[in-house]
Amino acid sequence: MDKLRHVPSLQALQALVEVADSGSFTQAAQKLCLTQSAVSRQIQQLEHHFGVPMFIRSSRSIRLTPEGEQVLASARNILGQLITLEDRLSGQKRPFRIRMHVSLAVRWLLPKLNDFYRCHPDISLAIETVATEIVEPASDSDAYILYLPEPSSDPQSLTLFEEALVPVCAPGLASAARPLASVEDLVSFPLLHRSADKQAWIEWLAANGGRSLDDYRHIPFNLDELALDAAARGLGVAVTDMTLAQESIDRGVLIVPFGQPLKTRGIYSLCPQPSAASHPACALILRWFAQQADGGR
Fold first, then answer.
1. Based on the number of CB atoms within 10 Å of its own CB, is 21 exposed (0-12), middle (13-18) or buried (19 or more)?
2. Which of 99, 137, 252, 276 could form a disulfide with 142 if both were Cys (CB 3.0 to 4.6 A apart)?
3. Mean per-residue pLDDT for 218-232?
């Protein structure tokens, strides 16, 4: 009976979800607009309530305990039900919340938002961006867009576009003394990487008869956005998805110096969450995104 009368606080459950999603007490505190010590206290309250640790902590990382995984699943369910109830009972319109990688938001969605608000001036989108390689769903999001290494069989997901890798650089990067007209010319320029694993360049060079990575100079970044901005500033040559680079190419900020797009089977997919169905404009929003997909523009 005591446990029934003294249930965990919603703030503590929300803190657990945010720490689990971000893998960091510091990032969770920033998201919740709290101090790190306040978030730690909320996790400690949960551990005291259930009598088990929520996380296994090390100097470099944290991970959920098996008991913490169970509490997290219940926390997501409880918070999700409350959000759904709030949406159902509230008479006020709320934004449709979409979570995605920052590079995708800047390079693909932002150039299209004028069209969205022209078509739907009374609907608001709330865009939440993450810089992590994998976009995890969140309890307060209606949908999320993520990269998949191959097409999804989930009927609920919407393929927005297929990944097609191309080299891009600033228009004035090459010169008569340093031409950039074929893969052989790349040895004269730094390769700009959008991730630490250099996977995009590895795939593109392998498909186009390039040399070993050891034969090139490298400037690594952790975001497409940074690599593309560096390319536009003349730092070197980046490999990125053609769709993500398209606006910069149209504006003349970037060019594709040579080569054909390399299709990798990877896709960018929009995945609605259960809460999306309760939003009154869900059907209109999903229809607009479907129109932006390959073949629908």
1. buried
2. 276
3. 95
**Architecture of the domain spanning 93-297:** 3-Layer(aba) Sandwich (3.40)
* Domains 2-89 and 93-297 fall in the same CATH topology: no
Exposure class string for 150-161: b at 16+ Cβ within 10 A, else e: eeeeeeebbebb
Q: What is the pTM of this model?
A: 0.68
Is residue 198 classed as helix, strand or coil in its secondary structure?
coil
Q: Place 91 in a pLDDT band, splitting at 50, 70 and 90.
A: very low
Terminal Cα-to-Cα distance of the chain (whole angstroms): 59
pLDDT in tens, 42-65: 999 999 989 999 999 887 788 899
Domain edges within the chain: 2-89, 93-297
Closest to 262 measured CA to CA, from 236, 239, 245, 246: 239
* Helix (H/G/I), strand (E/B), else coil: 27: helix
Judge whether 16 and 72 are in contact, CB under 8 Å.
Answer: yes
User: From CA 294, how far away is CA 261, in angstroms rounded?
Assistant: 15
Which CATH fold would you assign to the domain 2-89? Arc Repressor Mutant, subunit A (1.10.10)
- Which of 244, 245, 237 is closest to 219 using CA atoms? 237
Which residues are bridge partners to 101 per DSSP?
130
Task: In whole angstroms, give the CA distance from residue 198 to residue 259.
Answer: 19
Tokens of 165: 């890798």
